[in-house]
Amino acid sequence: MQTEWIVIVVLVVIAIYAIVVFNRLIRGRNLVREGWSGIDVQLRRRSDLIPNLVEIVKGYAAHERTLFEDIAAKRTSAMAKASSVSERLRVIGSRTEMPAIYSACDVVVLVSDDIETFPLCFLEAEACGVPVVGLDTGGVRETMIAGETGFVVDSDNLEGMTSTLAALLADRDKRLRMGRAGRQWVKRKLSRDAMVDGYERVLTGGKAAGHSER
pTM above the 0.70 mark? Predict the structure, then answer.
């Protein structure tokens, strides 16, 4: 009889222990689920905040862009007024209709004495059929076929720049001829299809054409 009671007590203890362990496991599982649920809620909240954040950044970016454009325009206007040829200079400020502006030019000139890595303004001008003239700095040479679509002048040779521009402005046929050559060169070497072909040659081990190639 005593043995039976001992067995019963042992079984009861085991049952109680099993119930306690089970309850702890259930409580742990619920805590884990609540934790993951909280993470999901926070992720959704942050995801919902992203559009607002994007709009805020856009607003500040637009404000800063306007501010910098105003500063640049005022600086350029002050420099133009201080120039000895101020009566011949006109500062038009920021513009978006660039193809029309390029097409209205006889020549596009870059007189920067700083390093110009790769002046896209020359490529844009040539694409619009306008010849270009720039000082020999940085990657200016890479944006034209010197003598055919534009001219490169030594960076310290302002007299050479003046004489080159004077000669080009006096020769309308030459400007038109160089403008057509520039447009054809940009289309042949720098169009989207040409860029895709160049990347393909690089990736397949072929020789990619450089910008200075004709």
Answer: no
